[in-house]
């Protein structure tokens, strides 16, 4: 049998938690080690039990799923798989930016859910087919917009500190805040401060725009 996968389930509805646990129990290699009703409980369980995967709903009372995802991925080895009924662009973007390894809607089948948990535990990313087209479309539109303005001479680079330049260079490589913090030996809060400064100095509104701006200057 494949190596076991330990999971916690965070959802403010107990019947949902029980139903998800029942689905996961059909795979003898998956063990549910905890249930949480809000984001704070989810984070606490991840700190205490270090599960492989946290299944996290986004809309919960108190500390929500975005809050929990950001802190779980930044402070524990647990990977987050969002499982929610909400599929707005803002929530999808916020969840992925917070570090989620996957995003599933609750309409997914039991077999797909089990497979997704396995994929996320193996450090692979998962997107629900129902939202994949939208994610690709947003990326394509962003790329097209960048291409349409590429003929214009790029504006000069803003004056940056050495640390801001280091963070920017690693951001271009697609690294997460956690990865940048580890590589540079600084705290994740410090990384976020530098990224915020880069947004302010460049006028970019996303990590994609920041990366495109940097790459434009290098060509």
The percentage of residues in β strands lies in: 5-15%
Identify the strand order in the major beta sheet.
2-1-3-4-5-6
Distance between the termini: 50 Å
Q: What is the H/E string?
A: EHEHEHEHEHEHHHHH
CATH class of the largest domain: Alpha Beta
**Low-pLDDT stretches:** none
Number of E strands: 6
Quote the CATH topology of the largest domain: Rossmann fold
Whole-number radius of gyration?
Answer: 19 Å
Structural class of the helix and strand makeup? alpha/beta
- Sum up the overall morphology in one term: elongated
- The CATH level-2 architecture of the largest domain is identified as 3-Layer(aba) Sandwich
Q: Let me know the CATH homologous superfamily of the largest domain.
A: Response regulator
Total domain modules: 2
Number of helices: 10
Largest sheet: 6 strands, parallel
Provide mean pLDDT, rounded: 84
């Amino acid at each position: 049998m494949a190596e076991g996968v330990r999971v916690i389930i965070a959802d403010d509805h107990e019947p949902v938690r029980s139903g998800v646990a029942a689905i996961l129990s059909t795979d003898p290699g998956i063990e549910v080690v905890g249930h949480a009703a809000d984001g704070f409980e989810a984070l606490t369980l991840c700190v205490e039990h270090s599960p492989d995967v946290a299944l996290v709903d986004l809309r919960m009372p108190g500390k929500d799923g975005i809050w929990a995802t950001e802190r779980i991925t930044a402070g524990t080895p647990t990977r987050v798989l969002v499982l929610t009924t909400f599929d707005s662009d803002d929530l999808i973007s916020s969840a992925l930016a917070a570090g989620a390894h996957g995003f599933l809607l609750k309409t997914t089948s039991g077999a797909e859910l089990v497979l997704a948990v396995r994929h996320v535990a193996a450090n692979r990313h998962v997107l629900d087919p129902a939202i994949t087209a939208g994610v690709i479309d947003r990326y394509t539109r962003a790329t097209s917009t960048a291409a349409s303005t590429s003929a214009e001479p790029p504006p000069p680079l803003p004056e940056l500190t050495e640390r801001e330049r280091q963070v920017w260079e690693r951001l271009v490589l697609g690294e997460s805040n956690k990865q940048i913090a580890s590589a540079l030996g600084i705290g994740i809060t410090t990384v976020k401060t530098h990224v915020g400064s880069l947004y302010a100095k460049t006028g970019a509104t996303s990590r994609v725009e920041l990366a495109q701006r940097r790459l434009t200057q290098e060509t």
